[in-house]
Structure formats: C-alpha cells, structure tokens
Amino acid sequence: GVRVGVLALQGDVREHAEALRAVGAVPVPVRRASELASVDGLILPGGESTAIAHLLRVFELMEPLRAAIADGLPVLGTCAGMILLSDTIADPAVVRGREQESIGGLGVTVRRNAFGRQVDSFEQDLELAAWGASLPGPSSVRAVFIRAPRIEEVGEGVSVLATVDGHPVAVAQGHLVATSFHPESAGETALHSWLAAAAGERAAGRVA
Ligand code: GLN
C-alpha cells in the first residue's frame, strides 16, 4: 500500500491512521523531516492549531512542510489541519507576543471557532461534491464539527465541496483538500480514499 503520513505532534492521529488502513494505505506517523520525505501524501489532523503550529517550529517541520506542499504533496487537512493549511487566519491566536502561524498553501481565509460557543460541537449529514476521479460525488458524509473553523474567503482556483448555512466547510485546490469537520470521527473514509489515490499517483510519478 501507499505510504501516507499523519502529522503526529498533537490531535486525533489514531483515528486518521485507522481510516487510512481501512482504505488500504499504510499510515506513517510524521514528526521529523526524514519521515515527511518518506510519504506520498499527508494528513494534518484536528486538534489545537496553536499547539500544532508551535510544535511545527520546535520540530523544525514548518519549512519542510511548505516545501513539500509547493512540490505537490497531496494533503488532507481536517479542522485544526484546515487552519494550518490556510494561507490566512482571520483571528490568529497571540502566544507570547507572536501571532499564530499557518503552513499555508490553500488560498482561503479561515476563522477559528467560528460556529459559536453554544454549538461548540454538532454532527450533520453533508453532500460532498466530487473532486477529481478519486472523490466521486456528490456523496453523503456524516460530518462531526468540534469547535470548528469556517472559511470566510475563497481565493481563485479553490472549489467549495460543501457548505453549512452558506459557509464553505469543505474546499479543494489541486492536491489540497480541507474540511472544517472531522470525517474520521464518524468513520467516514471517502476523503481518505481520495488522498490514498492521489498519493498513489505521486508515488507512481516518482518511480517513473
Ligand atoms: N478550535 C481548534 C483550533 O483552533 C480546532 C478544533 C478541532 O480541530 N477540532 O485549532
């Protein structure tokens, strides 16, 4: 099976690894640049984006990740992972005088915790539009939102795959897909299938 990394600094790493196994991929925990270099796709999991961004600096992964994304590495970012993948954070946290950083690559502006306190968490069925040959659609997915971010602006070349109350909650741009929600918490694997297929294509291109 194709090797797909899961950034394993903080967050729901185990659930994503299980979803990858379910679609026949080999999950690889990524904590260092050498591990990143060994995979053909990557998941940025949910968790706490400020903590993950801080650890990306500590583990010296920020620049290798930016380079890998610029080089076409297929990436799925979920929840905090979507925040990390976004070019602009509307309301970055300020930790010890420094604004929270994102990795970037995805041409959107995201707002953290945007669905409000009284509805910190909710679940709903969503219609997900197709993306490429390996994410056929529209497909119905059970989406789990936990202190979820929301996309406020979508740049050129970014496709909206699903919305809630008119706000994009799943977007795609070339080799990048991001969701406000946690597909892995509900056992959804459609997005993991897409990622495994995209990673398979990249692996084939590397050998050729
Ligand atoms: N609110 C979190 C953040 O800002 C994201 C929550 C999640 O990943 N479930 O990083």
TrEMBL record:
Keywords (A to Z) from UniProt: Glutamine amidotransferase, Hydrolase, Lyase, Pyridoxal phosphate
Pathway participation: Cofactor biosynthesis; pyridoxal 5'-phosphate biosynthesis
Assigned EC number: 4.3.3.6, 3.5.1.2
Active site: 79, 182, 184
Top-level division of the source organism's lineage: Bacteria
GO cellular component: cytosol; glutaminase complex
Gene3D superfamilies: 3.40.50.880
One GO term (biological process): pyridoxal phosphate biosynthetic process
Alphabetical list of InterPro entries matching this protein: Class_I_gatase-like, PdxT/SNO, PdxT/SNO_CS
Reactions accelerated catalytically: aldehydo-D-ribose 5-phosphate + D-glyceraldehyde 3-phosphate + L-glutamine = pyridoxal 5'-phosphate + L-glutamate + phosphate + 3 H2O + H(+); L-glutamine + H2O = L-glutamate + NH4(+)
Residues binding L-glutamine, per UniProt: 47-49, 112, 146-147
Subunit structure, as described in the record: In the presence of PdxS, forms a dodecamer of heterodimers. Only shows activity in the heterodimer.
NCBIfam families tied to this protein: PLP_synth_Pdx2
Function according to Swiss-Prot or TrEMBL: Catalyzes the hydrolysis of glutamine to glutamate and ammonia as part of the biosynthesis of pyridoxal 5'-phosphate. The resulting ammonia molecule is channeled to the active site of PdxS.
Full protein name: Pyridoxal 5'-phosphate synthase subunit PdxT
Record organism: Galactobacter valiniphilus
Gene label: pdxT
